[in-house]
Design a protein that fits this description.
This is HTH CENPB-type domain-containing protein. This protein is mostly helical and 153 residues long. It contains seven helices and two strands, in the order E-E-H-H-H-H-H-H-H. Helices cover 52% and strands 3% of the residues.
Length: 153
């Protein structure tokens, strides 16, 4: 049973600690795959961006019971994120370095070639025409596109 803080106090579990269970395993696996896909496309997300995205994801999932506290900040709780990261050890989030240093290190021939290889693969796979290619820079804009009702798109 999930209480108001979003913790699952299941008497069948032998742990003395309550665990946060908001999503089904399959739903969490979809999140993991999405985060890995973002990383493969060189679009790494921060803790804050992930928490905002997860909140939006929880809101659109039918029957998803997330903690009321998430509505206050319009993002998932930091405790939930820490538990999520412990459950999915293949993910790792690192604090970004200063912009100028990160650009200097990250902007090299290998990374640029990797980006354009990914770009070319996506273009070949989905056969996008030039009028269907957009430069989406901001996470908020992406979320608005994902959560629009079909008649709004």
């Amino acid at each position: 049973m999930i209480n108001d803080d979003g913790y699952d106090n299941d008497p069948k579990e032998n742990s003395k600690y309550a665990t946060r269970k908001v999503f089904l395993t399959s739903e969490e696996n979809m999140l993991v795959n999405y985060l890995k896909q973002c990383s493969n496309m060189n679009y790494c997300l921060t803790y804050q961006q992930i928490r905002v995205f997860v909140y939006g994801y929880a809101k659109v999932l039918p029957g998803c019971k997330y903690p009321e506290k998430w509505n206050l900040g319009k993002k998932a709780g930091i405790e939930w994120l820490h538990g999520f990261m412990k459950r999915h050890v293949t993910l790792s989030l690192r604090k970004p370095e200063s912009t100028s240093l990160a650009r200097e290190i990250g902007f090299n021939k290998t990374r640029v070639e990797e980006f354009f290889l990914n770009y070319r693969n996506v273009l070949n796979k989905y056969k996008f025409t030039p009028n269907r290619i957009f430069n989406l820079d901001e996470m908020n804009y992406l979320l608005k596109l994902l959560y629009c009702k079909p008649h709004q798109m």
